[in-house]
Write a structure and sequence with these properties.
The structure is a homodimer. With about 150 residues, the first copy, chain A, is an alpha/beta fold. Chain A contains five helices and five strands. Chain A has a single domain, classed as Alpha/beta knot, CATH 3.40.1280. The first copy, chain A, has a five-stranded parallel sheet with strand order 2-1-4-3-5. In chain A, helix 3 links the parallel strand 3 and strand 4. The interface between A and B is medium-sized, with 34 and 34 residues. Chains A, B: Specifically methylates the pseudouridine at position 1915 (m3Psi1915) in 23S rRNA.
Chain lengths: ~150, ~150
């Protein structure tokens, strides 16, 4: 199964080893691709709506025609078990695309086009911490699907 | 203000730079102490209840007489804004203690004694990922309290 994750911006150095840890461990389960798209612009010279729309366009270009699951603070909350079942369902289709918002959040354009919107938490996370959490949940999801032990 | 975080087990290598990143940035705001307590035992030779009780005892020894906030999957959900107000309230008291459960979760003993139980998510996280998320939220909390810009 192919899993694509699209996230605006770059990964900070302090999160690299943690993200790499899960990329390596996920190889057993899926062909993972993480695409870092260009940020929409600088808040000092542009308004947030313009930035969000630019970011959304970059993200939609990276998605192509695939349907996608949007990580959204105001989305639906799921347990790790339910998240695992989402992966299990999409495995039959062979691919799955996740989109994470940028530093300013997600645009309405993305909200409208998402197949499903899920919320990791009521808490706001940095977009790169959201990436790490998503990777851990995908890994956990496969462990649940495969009925493998995972006590961490 | 003093902030103490108690978490069973050790920190994995792949999360060290991320945890260190927030420890460093929090120095401006608080005197932070992270205490890693001993795990309760091995599931292959002990049952989970015994392990959890042992872990709880190690945690309670590390807490001393302070009241504490327990991170618990089944606790109350808060937004980052509400979390910041919790810190703001406890700043007057001068100290704050957080407890994170171990790989097997939290014992009833800890649930009973906690001043407050908060849930980061409906998703289950590793205890060390919970530590990282907590550190980021404490940092975000201070940025909110101080009314400082924080777009990440």
């Amino acid at each position: 199964m192919k899993i694509k994750i699209i996230v605006p911006g770059k990964l900070s150095k302090h999160l690299k080893s943690a993200v790499d840890f899960y990329i390596k461990r996920l190889k057993r389960f899926a062909k993972l691709e993480i695409i870092y798209t260009k940020l929409g612009g600088d808040l000092n010279v542009m308004d947030s709506k313009t930035i969000l729309n630019k970011e959304a366009q970059n993200i939609l270009n990276a998605i192509g025609k695939a349907d996608f699951i949007l990580l959204d603070l105001h989305g639906e909350k799921v347990t790790s078990e339910q998240f695992a079942r989402m992966i299990e369902t999409d495995r039959l289709k062979g691919n799955m695309t996740f989109v994470i918002g940028g530093p300013l959040g997600v645009s309405e354009l993305l909200r409208d086009q998402a197949k499903r919107r899920i919320s990791l938490s009521d808490l706001t996370f940095t977009h790169e911490l959201a990436l790490l959490i998503l990777l851990e949940q995908i890994f956990r999801g496969f462990k649940i699907i495969m009925n493998e032990k995972y006590h961490y």
